[in-house]
Amino acid sequence: MFCHALLEAEKGSVGGGSLLSSEFVFKVLVIGPREEVKDRFLLSMDSNSYFLECFKSIVGVSLQVNVINVKGRMVKVQIWDVYDSPPFKSMFHHYFKGAYGAIILLTKRVEGEASKYIEEVYKHCGEIPVLVIIVDERSPQELFLEYGDSYIEDPMESLKILSERIFERRSEPLYLRLSYNTLPPYAQLLSRRRLENLATIPLNVPLIREVLEAMGFHTGNDEIVLRDERAIWTVDLRTGEVYLQPTQCDKCDGGCVKKEKVCMILASPGWSSNPDISQSDLLVIAKVYAIANKELPPEVQERVNEILACPYKDNKKSERRRRKRTTRQEIRI
To answer: Do residues 162 and 103 lie in contact, with contact meaning Cβ atoms separated by under 8 Å?
Structure first.
């Protein structure tokens, strides 16, 4: 698995000075029961990353990308923050697929659950490198005196340690300690720059394409086409518009080829530390992910059901019933 991972990673481009430029690309999972701890852990990596949080509560995963230097090699780390909630458990095998490493974040109170999370990772990913980071409420000085080299001061260190273990093909779990006091407070999150209004910021199509391709989507002709048993979805990456075309109508005599527009908006504003990413970019990515994972909001799903309902078939049934009644009347006469 690791040999294949490194061969795939070497396909990343080099140069240009872009945040997304790197020699190697590693997908890394971040899992654990405390969403607040994970959010603050990831926020501390703000200096060289971008964070797309707008669809975490919708589809159960958020994406953060960091570029780090590991012993002279530029590595792009795609962090998949998986929402540890029962509604999304059935999607874990999709989110875990293709991961090269995992970070398990636990508080000292639930330290004993580490083996459960390790088994979950191994179940879906095989024996990939795993870091188990115990977030302790004691001071950094106390933790350093007790744990020495197993204590990390900065969450960014965990990415470098994990990347090194991926290169070295070391799959045994490594336990580390981190002080809760080193994580940024939520007040810092709330004071960050909010994203600009959708209407005033044009879409950054190249960046949207790169993020979606990193998430496994094909972006030919600046659009995403998703198919299921009921419909064909098309998301235009240049405008952000979403179109839905039923497929079941292809079998009816009417030859229905209607294509309807579906409106989706963000339920709440997101934020990003990268000035190149706007709220409109986040919305396009969230639309694609919500459609692909069938996690549409109830209001949107109602609109989808209306589009998928074939009025021609209903009219045809009514016409047959009308003809039968007419025939019975003619017989009675």
So the answer is: yes
**Domain residues for 29?**
2-190
* Dihedral angle, C-alpha 325, 327, 328, 329, nearest 10 °: 90
Over the chain (333 residues), the average pLDDT of each successive run of 10 is 39 37 83 85 67 56 84 89 77 86 93 93 94 93 92 92 94 93 69 41 79 83 85 88 76 61 67 62 84 82 80 54 46 35
List the strands of the sheet with 260-262, edge to edge.
223-227, 231-236, 242-246, 260-262
Tokens 């501390």, located at residue? 44
Q: Both 62 and 204 in a single domain?
A: no
The count of C-alpha atoms lying within 13 angstroms of the C-alpha of 191, restricted to the half-sphere facing its C-beta, is: 5
Which residues are paired to 259 by β-bridges?
none
79 in Cβ contact with 89 (< 8 Å): no
pTM, full prediction = 0.55
**Are 66 and 175 within one domain?**
yes
CB 245 within 8 A of CB 109: no
The number of residues in the chain equals: 333
Half-sphere exposure of residue 64: CA atoms within 13 angstroms, side-chain side: 28
How far apart are the C-alpha atoms of 280 and 287, rounded to whole Å? 11
Strand-pair partners of 104: 31, 132
**What is the DSSP pairing of strand 130-136 with strand 231-236?**
unpaired
